[in-house]
């Protein structure tokens, strides 16, 4: 629906079964795999996609850090990875590598490997700390 009806093609469809995280969005501020969310449960809640998140300071920081760290190869998983990183940062869900790996554990990348993705997310956490002073 997000892609076909609303034209928001940053959100990807990978497995379609809630296993890969490519379809990640924020529903009422909470990270979800949109492919397994029944439409009826969305009523009254905000839905934030990568198109909105990448315009925020936190989202811009994540996009920049992913590029700098070389964390992007085919790019298919990256919107979902950035959504997961954004949710972690906004919720202050953890800054250690182990906490970041746990936070993105629902998102699969078949190309890059996770070290660069974790490094990029860690750098974006530091950017956020500087912004918040
Ligand atoms: S497409 Fe939704 S989790 Fe894979
Ligand atoms: S960069 Fe290709 S799947 Fe992650």
If you had to describe this structure to a student in words, what would you say it looks like?
This protein is mainly alpha-helical and 133 residues long. It has one domain: DNA polymerase, domain 1 (Orthogonal Bundle), CATH 1.10.150.120. It is built from five helices and three strands; from the N terminus they run E-E-E-H-H-H-H-H. A three-stranded antiparallel sheet has the order 2-1-3. The structure holds FE2/S2 (inorganic) cluster (2 copies).
Number of contiguous helices: 5
First-last Cα distance: 39 Å
How many structurally independent domains? 1
Instruction: Report strand %.
Output: 5-15%
Instruction: State the CATH superfamily name.
Output: [2Fe-2S]-binding domain
H and E order: EEEHHHHH
Tally of DSSP β-strands: 3
In helices, the fraction of residues equals: 40-55%
CATH architecture: Orthogonal Bundle
* Overall CATH class: Mainly Alpha
Q: Please mark out the parts with pLDDT under 50 across 5 or more consecutive residues, or reply none.
A: none
Class by alpha and beta content: mainly alpha
**CATH topology assignment:** DNA polymerase, domain 1
Q: Name the bound molecules.
A: FE2/S2 (inorganic) cluster
> What is the average per-residue confidence, as pLDDT, rounded to a whole number?
94
Radius of gyration: 14 Å
Describe the main β-sheet briefly: 3 strands, antiparallel
Please specify the SSE layout and strand pairing:
Blueprint (H helix, E strand, L loop, with lengths): L23 E4 L2 E4 L13 E2 L1 H4 L3 H12 L9 H13 L6 H7 L10 H19 L1
Antiparallel strand pairs: 1-2, 1-3
């Amino acid at each position: 629906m997000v892609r076909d009806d609303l034209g928001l093609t940053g959100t990807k469809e990978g497995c379609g079964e809630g296993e890969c995280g490519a379809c990640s969005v924020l529903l009422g501020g909470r990270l979800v795999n949109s492919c397994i969310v029944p439409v009826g449960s969305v009523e009254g809640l905000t839905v934030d996609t990568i198109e909105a998140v990448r315009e925020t300071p936190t989202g811009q920081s994540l996009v920049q850090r992913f590029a700098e760290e070389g964390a992007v190869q085919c790019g298919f998983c990256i919107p979902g990875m950035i959504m997961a990183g954004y949710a972690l940062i906004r919720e202050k869900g953890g800054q250690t590598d182990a906490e970041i790996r746990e936070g993105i554990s629902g998102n699969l990348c078949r190309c890059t490997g996770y070290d660069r993705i974790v490094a990029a997310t860690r750098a974006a956490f530091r950017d956020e700390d500087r912004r918040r002073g």
